[in-house]
Amino acid sequence: MATHRSARESSTVPAPQTPRQAGPSATRLVSLRDAAEVFGVSVKTIRRRIADGTVTGYRIGTLIRVDLDELRAALVVKIRSAH
Question: 33-36 long-range CB contacts below 8 Å, 24 or more apart?
């Protein structure tokens, strides 16, 4: 039995990729404001980390985004116990 595809289904345009499909280093990118809120720091702190090269900023059009995992690795520092 033959199946018929709609014009949309037979299109050669690939489906959009989610970050996990895009590649191993691709993760969720968030706005500077959202990142600052997650880590309890100011947007200015995030901008300074981008400027000094500690964190990579990604420009998407006019927007700047950061990778939460990369930011976590840069901002969260394990401290030694005082005992």
Answer: 35/66, 35/68, 35/71
Residue pair 15/22 in contact (Cβ under 8 Å)? The answer is no
Separation of alpha carbons 27 and 20, rounded Å:
7
Tens digits of per-residue pLDDT, 21-62? Answer: 454 455 789 999 999 999 999 999 999 999 999 999 999 999
Greatest Cα pair distance in the chain: 74
Q: How far apart are CA 48 and CA 55, in angstroms?
A: 9
The Cα–Cα gap between 31 and 69 comes to: 13
Q: Is residue 16 part of a domain?
A: no
Q: From the centroid of its chain, how far is CA 28?
A: 3
| Segments forming the whole domain that contains residue 70 | 26-75
**Domain total in the chain:** 1
pTM for the full model? 0.62
